[in-house]
UniProtKB/TrEMBL annotation:
Gene3D superfamilies, sorted: 1.10.196.10, Regulator of G-protein Signalling 4, domain 2
Occurrences of domain RGS (ranges): 58-174
Species annotation: Indicator maculatus
Keywords (A to Z) from UniProt: Cell membrane, Cell projection, Membrane, Nucleus, Signal transduction inhibitor
Name by which UniProt lists this protein: Regulator of G-protein signaling 8
């Protein structure tokens, strides 16, 4: 049955992942190390306390740091809201598209995955922003997601980011980098 309905398998796999998070201590340092871009021990040796502390300076500083992004993604997974970051990253990647031929197809994929009503990873944006983005899709350009991306960035910055800075993932990470120094 699974090969005939691959989209259902994908959703089930996502649900299994989410349920798996619930069976573990979901807001823990171990969740962070599981998704680090490098091997966790090597990554932690490279990450200084100063760098990790700078993530609290601003949301954009956090997003611009490879390990900060990984830690924030791990945190969002514990809150079941990683689609916001994934959409923001997809938009950043989309803006680098240089091929006019690929632009429309990439835009359509992003729209269907994150913006359209009932999208598999639908982001939380208001009706006006969703409709403006839908109209922008008629003639996709590098800026067609700008308003939606801005709204999602603002939502993460005002809502998820302050919780991340208070989270066990972040505080454990800071403690781990400080322990390494002593």
């Amino acid at each position: 049955l699974t090969p005939l309905l691959p989209h259902i398998d994908h959703r089930n796999r996502g649900m299994r992942t989410r349920l798996g998070c619930l069976s573990h201590k979901s807001d823990s340092y171990n969740d962070f190390t599981a998704i680090l871009p490098d091997k966790p021990n090597r990554a932690l040796k490279r990450l200084s306390t100063e760098e990790a502390t700078r993530w609290a300076d601003s949301f954009d500083v956090l997003l611009s740091h490879k390990y900060g992004l990984a830690a924030f993604r791990a945190f969002l997974k514990t809150e079941f809201s990683e689609e916001n970051l994934e959409f923001w990253l997809a938009c950043e990647d989309f803006k680098k598209t240089r091929s006019a031929a690929k632009l429309a197809a990439k835009a359509q994929r992003i729209f269907e995955e994150f913006i359209d009503v009932q999208a598999p990873r639908e982001v939380n944006i208001d009706f006006q922003t969703r409709e403006l983005t839908r109209r922008n899709m008629q003639e996709p350009s590098l800026s067609c997601f700008d308003q939606a991306q801005g709204k999602v960035h603002s939502l993460m910055e005002k809502d998820s980011y302050p919780r991340f800075l208070r989270s066990k993932i972040y505080t454990d990470l800071l403690s781990q980098t400080q322990r390494r120094l002593s």
